[in-house]
Write a sequence for this structure.
């Protein structure tokens, strides 16, 4: 069958030009039929002794054979077409003139439009047909005039020409329809090929036995073989075989695809570039295509992800340098993906994603499990679409290396319907930092302890001298001794503050809230300060405690430190006849973070008519050891730590502090705490209050 | 009214502080016993049965907390009033002291001698 097909198509195997293929088939079949019929009939006539008829037939038949051979050898189909059409035309005129065999000559006329339109196309076909008409009429007229012989009557010729016209018109229209359809198909095919060739991914159509049937431009270029790869074996190409393991993997994948599965994984591909051979990382997929439930071919596709892989590697390296692990939890599917560093931090040697929730939690120290779970549960109750930043928490994990302290940060992504769908977070091992912090804190504690010994000695001896225990002293001596004593007091106070700062910075001060009457606390602290006032400045002190104020859940010691610091500032910086106002009122201020609670709270206002805070120094007011210039001028005593400590305490207990101030007019400091009070924290250190003595 | 002179044992390793305490308390009419470390302090306490003990914590040989625990094991030692007088602001030590029934835990650098004397008198009059 293949041999016969090859013969009829003159060896033309390219699928591209279907028209040419059909024309070849037609010519060859026509020629074969013509040959056999002509030679056949010719032989019969020869045997019957009709040499007059036999000879032309045999000669004609031979011409057909010559045509077939000619096409096979030279492939000059145009020449062959012209020969056929011309031969046919001449034959028809001869038939017209002689009548052919048994007056059947003009029947052959109807084959002419078929052949010409098909072989020469519509345009040339019409011209050829017109020529035939003209010649036919010419011969008829010549015949009627007696110049040449003519075998047919006027009526016969007329009928011939009219029916020929009808047939030709039909064939013309039919051919047009075929041509138009073919044009359309070609256009689509060209467009599709354009489309595929402009894709930036490699794509190829692979037959079930591994042959490349089609490849897009970029694939052909990358193979280095161009058009040659069409028809070659996909699995054997140099783009895989540069590495035997790669080739093995791809072959294995191909076998899998043949079972009907879709295969997709990352693979290495060797490509030819102007700069030479390169190995890319691609996301490689092979998809079986089914036509009418039968697997027909495979579509192979490769997407260059080398850059992506590089980025991933860079990120992984960055995580390693920073010692940060990252994770994402797809809440819908329940899968958790950990970065490589995350596995390392959690003490696992092998990297295997996805991670179950159970595995993610199993190494967290039992003491911290509940706290971590609570943090997650609270977040999951959020309904507001968008991103919800969760509170960062410290927790301990137990891994083969030992105990480690981690700091975890996360955010929750909630979709537009209010359903949480993804949680992403980072984790940092802060064990070393904690060790350093602890060492710092221990150093401060030790240094403070050492400093306090001479401070105690100076204080006590100055005290005894001032009290006259060592004998009477002159007023001048008293004055000088007072100075020593006061300076020493400053030192003692500074040491206390340093210890407090160190404890606050550790971030784990103990917070023990209990129901406290803030008005009462405020009042008693004020009384203490008033008693301690050395300089009489005739200050007016107003206390406004809202009668509706209920007791608030606060740590009394911490509250004392905050209020003492703010009150002492108000007093320190007030001028002669200054006014100090303390007000504690309920407040409707909402907290920004959590929309769940209605957040009302308590506002404490401390106003003075003192020197105020200069414009340029406002943003430093809460920083450690900072004292504004005018404050230093007004009152040399002062650690510059009071406001830092107050702010730190409020931040760590869930409150807020801010101020309004006009230089030379006064300042008002605001403290806010929610009605839920201070957030408690067990363990940790307490702060040292101001000396009550 | 108890007119007997009260005996106070001061256990303190820093000499200047010991001197100040000695002078002040003597001036206030108390009889002072001195010890430079926990071991000496324990011995003097058990030998002399003072009416009140002022106890430092950070000391060589035997520190204050160890001495405190040992003292509280003694029948008499269990009941003697003790005021811890230290420069160490340490929660664990405070809790441990309270557990061992000290009367007060005072930071030397933050307390005037005068107020200290007040505390002593307060306790002794109970």
């Amino acid at each position: 069958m293949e041999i016969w097909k090859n013969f009829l198509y003159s060896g033309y195997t390219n699928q591209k030009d279907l028209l040419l293929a059909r024309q070849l088939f037609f010519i060859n079949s026509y020629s074969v039929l013509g040959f056999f019929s002509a030679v056949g009939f010719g032989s019969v006539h020869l045997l019957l002794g009709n040499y007059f008829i036999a000879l032309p037939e045999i000669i004609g038949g031979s011409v057909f054979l010559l045509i077939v051979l000619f096409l096979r050898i030279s492939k000059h189909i145009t020449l062959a077409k012209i020969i056929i059409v011309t031969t046919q035309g001449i034959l028809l005129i001869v038939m017209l003139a002689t009548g052919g065999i048994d007056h059947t000559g003009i029947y052959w006329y109807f084959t002419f439009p078929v052949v010409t339109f098909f072989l020469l196309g519509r345009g040339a076909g019409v011209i050829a047909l017109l020529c035939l008409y003209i010649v036919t009429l010419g011969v008829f007229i010549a015949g009627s005039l007696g110049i040449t012989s003519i075998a047919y009557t006027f009526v016969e010729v007329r009928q011939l020409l009219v029916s020929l016209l009808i047939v030709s018109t039909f064939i013309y229209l039919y051919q047009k329809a075929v041509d138009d359809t073919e044009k359309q198909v070609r256009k689509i095919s060209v467009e599709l090929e354009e489309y595929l060739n402009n894709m930036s991914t490699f794509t190829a159509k692979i037959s079930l036995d591994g042959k490349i049937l089609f490849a897009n431009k970029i694939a052909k270029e990358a193979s280095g073989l161009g058009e040659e790869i069409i028809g070659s074996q996909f699995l054997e190409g140099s783009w895989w075989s540069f590495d035997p393991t790669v080739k093995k993997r791809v072959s294995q994948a191909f076998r899998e695809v043949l079972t009907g599965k879709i295969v997709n994984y990352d693979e290495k591909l060797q490509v030819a570039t102007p700069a030479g051979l390169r190995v890319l990382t691609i996301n490689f997929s092979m998809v079986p295509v089914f036509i009418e439930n039968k697997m027909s071919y495979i579509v192979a596709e490769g997407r260059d992800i080398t850059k992506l892989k590089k980025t991933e590697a860079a990120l992984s390296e960055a995580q390693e340098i920073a010692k940060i692990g990252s994770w994402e939890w797809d809440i819908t599917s329940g899968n958790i993906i950990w970065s490589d560093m995350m596995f390392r931090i959690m003490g696992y040697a092998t990297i295997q994603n996805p991670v179950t929730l159970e595995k993610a939690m199993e190494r967290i120290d039992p003491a911290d499990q509940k706290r971590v779970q609570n943090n997650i549960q609270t977040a999951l109750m959020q309904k507001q679409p968008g991103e919800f930043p969760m509170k960062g928490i410290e927790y301990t994990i137990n891994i083969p290396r030992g105990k480690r302290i981690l700091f975890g940060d996360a955010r929750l992504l909630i979709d537009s319907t209010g359903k949480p769908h993804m949680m992403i977070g980072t984790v940092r091992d802060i064990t070393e930092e904690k060790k350093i912090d602890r060492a710092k804190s221990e150093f401060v504690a030790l240094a403070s302890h050492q400093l306090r010994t001479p401070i105690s000695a100076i204080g006590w001896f100055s005290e005894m001298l001032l009290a006259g225990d060592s004998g009477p002293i002159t007023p001048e001596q008293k004055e000088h001794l007072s100075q020593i004593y006061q300076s020493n007091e400053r030192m003692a106070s500074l040491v206390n503050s340093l210890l407090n700062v160190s404890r606050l910075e550790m971030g784990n001060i103990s917070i023990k809230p209990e129901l406290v009457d803030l008005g009462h606390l405020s009042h008693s602290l004020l009384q203490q300060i008033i008693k301690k006032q050395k300089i009489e400045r005739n200050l007016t002190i107003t206390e406004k405690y809202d009668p509706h104020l209920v007791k608030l859940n606060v740590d009394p010691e911490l509250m004392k430190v905050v209020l003492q610091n703010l009150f002492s500032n108000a007093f320190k910086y007030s001028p002669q006849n200054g006014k100090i106002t303390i007000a504690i009122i309920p407040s409707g201020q909402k907290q920004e973070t959590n929309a769940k609670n209605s957040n009302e709270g308590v506002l404490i206002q401390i106003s003075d008519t003192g020197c105020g805070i200069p414009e340029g120094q406002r943003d430093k007011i809460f920083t450690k050891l900072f004292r504004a210039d005018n404050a230093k001028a007004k009152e040399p005593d002062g650690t510059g730590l009071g406001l830092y400590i107050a702010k730190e305490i409020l931040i760590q207990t869930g409150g807020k502090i801010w101020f309004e101030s006009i230089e030379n007019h006064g300042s008002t400091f605001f403290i806010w705490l929610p009605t839920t009070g201070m957030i408690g924290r067990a363990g940790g250190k307490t702060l040292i209050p101001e000396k009550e003595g | 009214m108890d007119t007997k002179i009260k005996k106070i044992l001061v256990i303190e390793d820093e000499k200047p502080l010991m001197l100040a305490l000695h002078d002040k308390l003597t001036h206030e009419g108390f009889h002072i016993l001195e010890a430079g470390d926990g071991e000496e302090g324990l011995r003097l306490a058990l030998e002399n049965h003072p009416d009140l003990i002022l106890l430092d914590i950070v000391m060589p040989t035997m520190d204050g907390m160890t001495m405190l625990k040992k003292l509280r094991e003694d029948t008499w030692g269990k009941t003697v009033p003790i005021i811890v007088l230290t420069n160490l602001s340490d929660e664990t030590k405070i809790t441990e002291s309270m557990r061992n029934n000290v009367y007060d835990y005072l930071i030397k650098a933050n307390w005037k001698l005068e107020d200290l004397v007040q505390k002593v008198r307060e306790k002794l009059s109970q």
In short: The interface with chain A takes residues 14, 16-17, 20-21, 23-24, 27, 58, 87-91, 107-115 of chain B (CB under 8 Å).
